[in-house]
Amino acid sequence: MTQDAGAAPQPSQSRLAFQAVGRSVVRAAGSLGDGIGRAWTAVAAFVRPVTSLVSTTGWLVLVAALAAALIALVFDWVEFGFLAATLAGAILVAVPFVFGRLRYRVGVELEPRRVVAGERALGRLTVVNDGTANSVSSRIELPVGEGSAVFRIPSLEPRAEHEELFAVPTNRRAVIVAGPAISVRGDELGLLRRTVRWNDPVELFVHPVTARLRPSAAGLVRDLEGEVTKVITDHDLSFHALRAYEPGDPLRNVHWRSSARTGRLMVRQYEETRRSELVLLQSTEETHYDDEAEFELGVSVFASIGVQLIHDATKTVCATERMRLRTTSTTSLLDDTCRIAPYARRGGPALGGLRELVRDRIRLAPAASVVVLVTGGAQPLSEVRAVQTVLPPETPLVAVRVQRGAESRIAKVGRSTVATIGELGELAAVMRRVRP
């Protein structure tokens, strides 16, 4: 019988068999791989208490000992055999040093907990032997900021206390973390290390240097008692006009004398008043500043204005691109300013960085009476002027450009007020002359 020309060709039975075998092999390999992975995880978890004691130097010594032993076996070099035995012996000698148990009570105190950059701060480490027998000598490592302090703790009798004092570097604004204190047991070569954590970290807030400003920050707070706006509302304090009654209007707004005179119901209208609400922003994009010192000057200006606004009991929103700062008290604001850090925009600098910042953060206070923006001297005035385009017409912008060494001055750029600050000491005099 002949096969029709239009019929599809029959698949090869051999090919189907090979495909089935291939799929079985792949599934078996996958299952084997999963089994090996689970077994490796179980073995690693089982031996972790031992492997975690070996330091980086210890692993290098073990690898070197293994390599020397292989060379000695393959090439029959006795010298490498002695080297392998020496390195392995060093590891064995280090083992007894990790045994034993310490019963410590460790405390870390910082005094004071909050300082201004440049002020002195001291730390105190106390170690108490809570055991019933004399403790052995040990070493305690205490990370402090980017560094680490090492203290040798002598043998202590039961309930005996050992104290160590140390200085904390506070030459720049930061949140310095001290701790946790870690006791280290091991050999002097550092091949094996057994560590125990004794306490939680303690934070030291190094506040930025600030300038004292006059109350109300030179007119930035224009309406502490409520500023009359052009928005007409049915409920407020400032009377505006009368209009005809419409269904749904509350009867309490009916002006009965005018209604009796005109023969129809008339209701009162009011001009809306707003409580002062100021938005204080700082640009933290690193391309907006010429250097790190200029950025720190910007943080000091930002913190100085924010502290004065809180002292004036002005409703304030303080924010950067990446964080909103607390304004419940001057302490909470200054604590948060310690965490402000410059950031690099992905993809390099982009136009509109200031506009994006203001457009995003103005949503936190849509009825803001004034927006104050702190930025660096690397931003051209055209970019500062463009920020006004994302603000409501009735919301003025005060831009503070920090530029180290520049002459402090005030200028009008479109509808915006731009103040240039060259030194922190000139901020108070400049802000007294600012009129949004």
UniProtKB/TrEMBL annotation:
Q: Where is the DUF58 domain?
A: 242-418
Tell me which InterPro entries the record gives.
DUF58
* Keyword Membrane recorded: yes
Domain of life from the UniProt record: Bacteria
Keywords of the record? Membrane, Transmembrane, Transmembrane helix
Q: Where are the transmembrane segments?
A: 57-75, 81-104
Question: What name has this protein been given in UniProt?
Answer: DUF58 domain-containing protein
